[in-house]
Design a protein that fits this description.
Two copies of one chain form a homodimer.
Chain A: E1 6-10, H1 15-26, E2 30-37, H2 44-56, E3 60-65, H3 68-71, H4 99-114, E4 118-120, H5 136-149, H6 151-154, E5 160-162, H7 170-179, H8 204-216
Helix pairs in contact in A: 1-2, 1-7, 7-8
Chain lengths: 226, 226
């Protein structure tokens, strides 16, 4: 592994981040996968992250506890806010305030310690569900910040934030992962997955995912509970 | 309190952040103080943060656990790296990778939940000890990011990152806090403070602090253990 450049890859256990990890490997990086235990409702996601990390052969997988539930403000971390089924206008209640900023910041700190200059994140602006921190201008602004914020940036290193899915449709994403041999049956996208990782089939995340497989003409390996 | 605008103030328990909190109050903000329990050696800092928050009358004080010690890479979080006494060239080993980026990101998330648009951070570029994430260009880049990263930014709110100490010398900082009635005896700056908050008098942080009181012509209330 020693001649491969290192990359920190944010890995949630969902479809997008698993595809991103497969892309990082295709590009020749030795991956250090980073997941967060942040009080998300769908803890089945973390189990999926472990499965994906093992299956794809990461160099290291770190799970950081993070008290986003102490901050609240999202249906994904606050039990008092219901997860919606209907799509709807604007930024949904599943938006977690500043989540990708927090995740990327911790990935940046770890990258600096590892001597990695490449960070991968599976954000997607097309089917992005209205989250502001999934847009290309957010990624560009974070990359700029990373190179001002760190010793590595000041001393001439250059961080790159890779968001390889950002302009892809869900169908393109699943086609890419399938071409790279990714087993999407390992991943869990559902906001309301149960302890076994079975999906509800009705939340925004389930609907985008199912639509992706349908548009790609691929069979959907998602395990639904109904 | 209801007619005062809310602000999230990063509060470490040291001299700079306590002064920043006093300035936020002078400017009329209702403060929501945020501290982190991040595996720092000087846990006495957190006790100081509680004392300062109580003394200055914050609206709320939240302490978030944060596993920066899982990431390592700094003398402040890694017991295997010694805290230096000698000053020296370049960015010191007490630099914590991406620390202010991580702290501001979590402050941003909490601010968004609270409906606050103002964040205060006690960074200082003059006596900044060589930390890259204490420079004005870092603060400007984070403010720009904040307005791209969040629902509030997208929907037309405007976050401001206040760094009122950024151009001040340590002497100006202690003069300002003293004018505002701040009791610096409550604060702990030492990187190697003991459990009672007694300072070593020799680390970089102690030296900058002592120099500040000397240059301001003010008596130094710091409790040293020697």
């Amino acid at each position: 592994m020693s001649d491969q450049p290192k990359a920190v890859v944010l890995l949630s256990g969902g479809l997008d981040s698993a595809t991103t990890l497969a892309i990082a490997h295709e590009q020749g990086f030795a991956s250090h996968a980073l997941s967060f235990d942040y009080g998300q409702r769908h803890a089945a996601e973390l189990n999926a992250a472990h499965r994906v990390a093992a299956d794809l052969g990461v160099f290291e997988h770190k799970v950081l506890p993070l008290s986003l539930d102490d901050i609240g403000g999202s249906a994904l971390t606050d039990q008092d806010i219901a997860v919606p089924e209907g799509g709807g206008e604007g930024i949904p209640v599943t938006y977690v305030p500043a989540r990708n900023t927090v995740f990327l910041s911790l990935a940046l700190g770890w990258a600096e310690v590892l001597g990695a200059r490449d960070l991968f994140v599976g954000v997607n602006a097309v089917d992005y569900s209205g989250y502001p921190d999934c847009r290309p201008e957010f990624i560009a602004a974070f990359e700029r910040l990373a190179n001002l914020a760190t010793r590595a940036g000041v001393e001439g290193g250059r961080f790159r934030i890779h968001a390889p899915l950002i302009e892809m449709s869900k169908a393109e994403i699943v086609r890419t992962g399938t071409r790279l041999g990714l087993d999407y049956g390992l991943t869990v996208s559902c906001y309301r997955a149960d302890a076994e990782g079975l999906a509800c089939g009705r939340c925004d995340s389930c609907r985008f995912r199912a639509q992706g497989f349908a548009e790609a003409g691929l069979s959907d390996p998602t395990r639904y509970r109904d």
